[in-house]
Design goal:
39% of the residues lie in helices and 7% in strands. The chain has 189 residues and is mainly alpha-helical. Strands 1-2 form a two-stranded antiparallel ribbon.
Length: 189
């Protein structure tokens, strides 16, 4: 694999942005998404994207590209995390849930967890402003206030499932693997 000669390319003029060089980002979050992030080598290049994007209120944010060594470490860590995620996804579900046990059998000494309903808080479990912001950024749609209660109930059911899963493994800590995998819909490119 050949070493990259530049960190990124300017989104407008396509010139190289070198490692450690200062560059500009747009202040609008839709221009900074992981898959579609925009990088600009100069203020005129940043200004050139404004008519196309039709931002209401935007400004250029000066940033500095990472040094080559830092970037290479980040890339390597990301590749290792992806390999680990793919290995977990390829493992059978029972092997993920019971790493040392047989086919679905709970480890010795484990017992079913009793879920108590007394004094159970019925608060909203999501940050409403963040939820509305996500839906607006993702689709341009508004969000009804009734969504938060239903979404909180879904989260409670997921948490109950995770609590039972941790109890079957005789753990006192709920881990990410205790939550059921949610099927992902293919996004349009």
């Amino acid at each position: 694999m050949t070493e990259p000669t530049a960190w990124k390319h300017c989104s407008t003029c396509k010139t190289d942005i070198a490692f450690g060089q200062s560059y500009y980002e747009c202040s609008v979050s839709t221009c900074n998404r992981k898959r579609t992030a925009l990088y600009f080598c100069s203020l005129p290049c940043w200004e050139a994207h404004l008519p196309m994007m039709r931002h209401r209120d935007a400004w250029a944010v000066e940033a500095r590209a990472p040094e080559r060594e830092t970037w290479e470490r980040e890339q390597q860590a990301g590749a290792e995390a992806e390999r680990s995620r793919q290995a977990r996804a390829a493992a059978p579900p029972e092997a993920q849930r019971h790493p040392g046990g047989g086919a679905g059998a709970a480890p010795a000494g484990s017992s079913a967890v009793e879920l108590r309903d007394d004094d159970l808080p019925r608060d909203v479990l999501v940050v409403v402003s963040k939820l509305k912001q996500y839906i607006r950024a993702r689709s341009g749609m508004n969000t009804s206030d009734g969504v938060t209660g239903i979404l909180s109930d879904h989260i409670r059911r997921l948490c109950d499932h995770a609590i039972r899963s941790a109890g079957q493994d005789a753990r006192k800590t709920v881990l990410d693997r205790d939550f059921p995998e949610v099927p992902r819909h293919r996004e349009r490119e």
